[in-house]
Amino acid sequence: MDFKQLQSFVTVVQEESFTQAAGRLFVSQSTVSTHIHQLESELNTKLILRTTKSLQITPKGRELYEYALNILELKERMIQACSIESRRIIHLGASTIPSAYILPQLLADFGKLHQDIYFIIHQSDSQGIINGLKDGLFNLGFIGMSCEDNDFCCLPFCKDRMVVITPVNKHFLQYRQRKENVLPELLHEPLILREKGSGSKKMADNFLANSGIAESELQIIARVNDQETIKNLVAGGMGISIISEKAAHNFLLEKRLLAFELPQAFSKRSLYLIYRKNYLLPSYVKEFLCFISQSKL
């Protein structure tokens, strides 16, 4: 069974005529007849009842017609997708930190060297990007946590660390002046956390768990899925948070936030580049991979 046979069959059903189907397909009538006969032989059933005066589709023929329409439509969608890819478009999925604070400069630098390559970027949390890769939505993903799934290559491409951020006011400036570890006291302040599924949330959870602090002991006042919103809420005095230093960098430079370091064992992390092992990556995607590996991030 092949596409030409299915196309001939669908066209005969639609035209209700072998002659008109042949004309529409720009082939001979005998070719159409051969295609139908081959289908009937392979499926071992009669699809079309044909006499010199009439043409009738059998119940099995009607059933095959519906299947054939779906198959031919899928074929057209596949051709269109491949045609789009021929324009050298890279589909990226990126979690919050890579998407907002790393990819803009990285893609700008790459674009200067490869002006014929374009990017379509979808932002989600790290788990959402992993799920999107499983569904074939992206060529590559950038996430804030490692993935242990054997179907993926997961490579560290950038270093980051987590910090506690607070408002800039007299209360928190007094914490900065103290030499002892103030984290246990800070964590009794109103706390804003990321949503589940993010790499930042996973790092914060690891720190809290290893510090022997249960979430029930925290004064959690909000869960927010956007780093910029978290920074603005903290800068406005709503509470404190644990976020990526890369995300906090601009607010720290502008002295709109204070940062308190976590113990190194719980603060340092890698950001990861991830892709499917069994997917054949186009050459221009491999060029981008090579560029990332050579970048100093």
Topology overview:
Blueprint: H1 3-15, H2 18-25, H3 29-43, E1 48-50, E2 55-57, H4 59-85, E3 89-94, H5 96-113, E4 118-123, H6 126-134, E5 140-143, E6 152-166, H7 170-177, H8 183-186, E7 191-193, H9 199-210, E8 220-223, H10 227-235, E9 240-244, H11 245-253, E10 258-261, H12 264-267, E11 268-276, H13 283-294
Parallel strand pairs: 3-4, 3-5, 7-8, 7-9
Antiparallel strand pairs: 1-2, 5-11, 6-9, 6-10, 6-11
Helix pairs in contact: 1-2, 1-3, 1-4, 2-3
| Largest sheet properties | 9 strands, mixed
State the helical fraction. Answer: 40-55%
Structural class: alpha/beta
Portion of residues in beta strands equals 15-25%
Per DSSP, the total helix count is 13
Distance between the termini: 52 Å
The overall strand count is 11
Helix-strand pattern: HHHEEHEHEHEEHHEHEHEHEHEH
Uncertain runs? none
What's the shape?
A: elongated
Taking Cα atoms only, what radius of gyration do you get, to the nearest Å?
A: 29 Å
Mean pLDDT: 88
Question: What can you tell me about this protein's structure?
Answer:
By secondary structure, this protein is of the alpha/beta class. It is 50% helix and 21% strand. The chain is built from 13 helices and eleven strands. The strands form two sheets. Strands 3, 4, 5, 6, 7, 8, 9, 10 and 11 form a nine-stranded mixed beta sheet that branches. The longest helix is centred in the N-terminal third of the chain and has 27 residues. The radius of gyration is 29 Å and the shape is elongated. The relative contact order is 0.14. The mean pLDDT is 88.
